[in-house]
Amino acid sequence: MRMVNLLISQLFAVAQWSLGAGSEVGMGALVWLLIPFVAAVAAGLWGSWAGRTRKVRNDGPELDGYARFRAAMEKPHSGT
User: Are the CB atoms for 31 and 8 separated by under 8 Å?
Assistant: First the structure.
């Protein structure tokens, strides 16, 4: 949070220097509106990445291993 406040204060100082001291309220509001805008863009990128179509895998080796496991478990145990 400290880095965000530092960044905003630096942007605010640049805005004051370039536009004059009278627009400080408007620039402060614009800087604070950038935070949800960046969050929305990041959420959109993450959503498009999370919802992508993934390559379909063949389940053959996993099912073969499971069949071997079941066969081993169904074998009668020798009495000791």
Answer: yes
